[in-house]
Amino acid sequence: MNRPKKYLPEYLSFTRKERTGIIVIVAFILAFVIAPFLFPFFIKSKPIDHTAFEKEIAVLNLQEDSNQYFTGSTYEKSNPHYLRRAGSTDYSKQLRGELFYFDPNTLPATGWVKLGIREKTANTIQNFVAKGGRFYKPEDIGKIWGLHEDEINRLIPYVQIESNSAAENYQPNKTAPFKKFEKPVNMIASVDINQADSSAFIALPGIGSKLAGRIINFRDKLGGFYKVEQVAETFALPDSTFQKIKNKLVLSSRSVNQLNINSATIDELKIHPYIRYNLANAIVQYRNQHGNFSSINDLRGITIFTAELFDKAAPYLTVK
Asked: Which of 3, 133, 226, 318 has the fewest beta carbons closer than 10 A?
């Protein structure tokens, strides 16, 4: 029974090294606990400068103020062009500046500040003038939101508005007489359809660059126009547009390029807009069977060559 008691002191006792280790560990623990309280005595905190932050806030407030407007309750009824800025009405800190004669319509923002006006109010005035607003008489500066009555009375004697005919004749309650719009008359010269370039055709009403190019391309494939009405056959040219420009189209020369039906090949004939492949092949086959054509009228013997098509194509064909 006494045996456990005999060995108990051995488990509760520590060697010299163990005691030293325990003391070191406890010392470290105490050091970590006390250290935060000792930092202020050894490390002085750097003061925080809020100046830059306050400047940024001031700039944001200035931008917000310069974009917030409302019409003055009294003056808006007489002249809606004058706009006031929403803001504080505390003018107790209004600065006093240097007095000099000035024109509120041309005075820059720096000039208003020099007069003792707050920078925000000066910017409001500049925005008003920049948007077309104008002061017509000295008392008009009293309609500006941001000017205290004392400041208005102080500045009015120094206001000198430059004489302006528009300002003198300005009557806010009078409606300007309506002037009927008169469409200018376009004097378009006549266009020679066999000589005109694309710019001449574009000058015609309803003709753009694409239609002008199509007219010229059609003219080149035909070999020239022999009558004005052929222009109406241009691809995608509306008849309504042709009727508008018809009286401006002239034909100084009816000379066109002709194809010799006794020597032209199928490939040469088929590129003509009035002939194409079927007629070109029929012409060559008829020529091979019956010999050369003695006259253009011999084409009437070809079955698919209708009278209407013959009348259109005949001016472009020859037997010589």
From this structure: 3
Question: Total domain count for the chain?
Answer: 3
State how far the Cα of 86 lies from the Cα of 73, in Å rounded to an integer.
12
CA atoms of 316 and 261, how far apart (whole Å)? 10
The CA radius of gyration of the chain, in Å to the nearest whole number, is 49
276 CB neighbour count, 10 Å cutoff: 12
- CA within 13 Å, CB half, 218: 20
Q: Which one, of 61, 60, 84, 87, lies nearest residue 71 by Cα?
A: 84
In this structure, what DSSP letter does residue 249 have?
A: E
Same domain, 107 and 151: yes
Nearest-angstrom CA–CA distance, 150 and 171 = 28
Give the integer Cα–Cα distance in Å for 128 and 85.
10
In this structure, are 263 and 292 located in the same domain? Answer: yes
pLDDT tens per residue across span 47-89: 676 677 776 776 565 555 444 433 343 434 444 333 344 344 4
141-161 pLDDT, tens digit per residue, is 887 777 778 888 888 888 888
The CATH number that applies at residue 270 is 1.10.150.310
In a domain, 271, yes or no: yes
Q: Is residue 232 part of a domain?
A: yes
Q: Is residue 118 part of a domain?
A: yes
Q: Is-contact 272 259, C-beta < 8 A?
A: yes
Q: What burial letters (b/e) apply to 1-22, b meaning 16+ CB within 10 Å? A: eeeeeeeeeeeeeeeeeeeeee
Q: Which domain holds residue 297?
A: 259-318
